[in-house]
Amino acid sequence: MKTFMVKNTAELAQAINNYTDNDTIELFPGEYFPETPTPYISIKKTLTIMGKSNDPDDIRLNCGFVVKKTLLLKNLSVNFDDESSNAITLFDGSKFYGTNVVINHSFPNRWNTIYAKNSFISLENSEVFSTNKGNVPSIELEDSQLFADNSSIYFLTEKNSKSLLKDCFISYAICLLDHSSLSFNNLTIDAASNESYSSFYVGEYSKTTGTTFSFVKNNSEVDIFGSTFLTNNLTTDFDNIAWNFDDESDINVDGRRLN
Asked: For the chain, is the Cβ count within 10 Å smaller at the N or the C terminus?
């Protein structure tokens, strides 16, 4: 295992071209890949890229990643401004670990900030968002798993996936489909920018369970269809939430069964 000490874009490009499995690239404060078009980097071997600062804004990577094995990012920010792809894409058992990172897609259109298919994501003390806010998920999971601790996610969607959220903040919505599951401890949703869609949608035989749940926006909409929604310690006034559900759903909020 080697460690590359990098101070500029040229040195970073050289390190990416020459790293071997389990190597580490350490970045000094600065902006990397400031030119256009924004590069898209393929991670075919396990690689750690970490900033030499505790402030992720001190190290700015203007690039995207397709992860084919394992990528670990720490103490840095990633901004991707290409309109033709996700900022980070994972396939076929690949893994992404983000610690103290900020990941943004400047022009997402229909592309995600992070998209995972049959993969694993771990976030700690991190933020995943989109500059152009709308109903495009910032994290989209298909047949994948997510663990997030003390992190902020703009919009999370799951299809046949599993998530565990601890001390997390959602600033648009959550949508669970196709036998997905979500477990949480201390989850907050502030859907102030979401005027047209459900703040929390659980459908297609999906399941939500957790403790300490709150909505910031008044009259936030929760839709539960053919699914399970179980939670304790709802800190928002029960009557300040617009509940929509069907007879096939199992809904229990602080011991109060809704159907």
From this structure: N
Residue 212 pLDDT grade (very low, low, confident, very high; cuts 50, 70, 90): very high
Shared domain for 98 and 15, answered yes or no, is yes
**Strands in 17-144 per DSSP E:** 23-27, 30-32, 40-43, 47-51, 59-61, 64-67, 70-80, 88-91, 95-105, 114-117, 120-124, 127-130, 139-142
| 3-state SS class at 178 | coil
Cα-flanking dihedrals φ and ψ of residue 168, to 5°?
-115, 160
Does residue 164 lie within any of the structural domains? no
pTM for this structure? 0.96
Which residue range forms the structural domain that includes residue 217? 170-259
